[in-house]
Amino acid sequence: MSYKRLLFENKDQIVTLKLNRADKLNAFDLLMFEDISKAIDSISRDRSIRAVVVGAEGSDFSTGLDIKSVMVNKQAGFKLLWKWWPTQSNLAQKMSVGWRRLSVPVIMAIHGRCWGAGMQTALGGDFRFASPDASLAIMESRWGLIPDMGGSLALREITAMDRALDWTMTSREIPAMEALEQGLISKIEPDPMAAAQAYAQTLAERSPDALAGIKKLYQYSWHHNDGRLLAKEWLLQWKMFLGKNRGIAVQKAQGKSDRQFVPRAL
């Protein structure tokens, strides 16, 4: 299978996948979403795969959405948000939920900026290794939106609500050390990709059935109402996407307008 936005390697039954849009700081356009979705499907069908490492080319893991290609284009937005049933994941939510639903361990190797869509994707990993200079951010409120890529499933497991509210409402950068202290990342490593690949090798020495069973068991124990959360996230985001304040937020973030927000719709 060929990819336009990813580098995909399967070596010794360990998949290494890298976001490959370095000239755009690995910003997510529709092709990036679609390629990641295809890669997740491909991995899920191959029962010989033992572990997955996800990293990125260039200076940053990802700076988030490609605003011009996704946010300004309503058709692209509809493709990301569309789903047949509220409790299923749409294309946007699959960036995080898809990794969680794989039966193999997924390790995220984060360096540089891991913002917005990048952070939502990273939250889908079972483990997150980050470089000392990495920064994370939940950027959606900057654009007048709520986080809508399924990362809320992980946030509810790893942090207190007041911290999640702070990060999400302010969209502030979270340095690697704070992220480690608050459980957003698993480790700080000088070379997160090398550390992730070494850890994947260690996991590959264990029974694949045991690893799959442990992942399914713990996910059931930690959270068994994922569908309800995905449905709520989806319904709220549609209200954001169709509302007047979303457009105002985009214009303000781009420095194109100083319009005041209209009274809230929720």
Automatic annotation (TrEMBL):
Domain of life, per lineage: Bacteria
GO MF term list: isomerase activity
Matches recorded under InterPro entries: ClpP/crotonase-like_dom_sf (IPR029045), Ech1-like (IPR045002), Enoyl-CoA_hydra/iso (IPR001753)
Signal sequence bounds: none
CDD domains according to UniProt: crotonase-like
Xref: Gene3D superfamilies: 2-enoyl-CoA Hydratase, Chain A, domain 1
Family of this protein: Belongs to the enoyl-CoA hydratase/isomerase family.
Full protein name: Enoyl-CoA hydratase/carnithine racemase
Protein's organism: Pseudobacteriovorax antillogorgiicola
Taxonomic lineage from the root: Bacteria, Pseudomonadati, Bdellovibrionota, Oligoflexia, Oligoflexales
